[in-house]
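User: Hey, quick favor. My workstation is busy. Could you predict this chain's structure for me?
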Amino acid sequence: INGPGGRLEPGESALECAIRETREELHVTPTGVEAAGELRFQFTDGYALHGYVFTATDCTGEPEQTDEAIPQWTPLDKIPFAQMWADDELWFPHMLSGRRFDGCWLVDDGALLGYSLDVAPPQRPAFGRAGPSGERSSSTDPACSSKSATFPASRPDLRSSACSKPACATRISR
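Assistant: No problem, here it is.
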């Protein structure tokens, strides 16, 4: 289970790509689209991937099943993380709470070996939490502001450009 996404076309921004891929995969146009985070994956076979995560407040059209996606609605307290990529459970709650994040993930044959996740304070209201007057709110627990790296020190060869962002590289080098 995952969200729409794909590769950037020549000359296309990450935002334009996210909107295009959502149209192609779900036949809807997202609205109120905002950047939520970045994900960098380093695979032990040398492959590296840099992804961008966006949120949308709504969409135009009705989601449709396509060859690439089967639309599914899930209550926020029942997100099926066991059926998703292992990293999703680590960054997804931050996205829902309105915190921007930047993660680096070390992966071997689908298994998450280590990660670094930097999380900023909330930038927007949380999804699914309404206050007494209907406004959205989120926790500001300082313990959730960052997570430290758990990259294996025995594999310095895997500290590649996929995780070369200064804040991330500092954490990985432990």
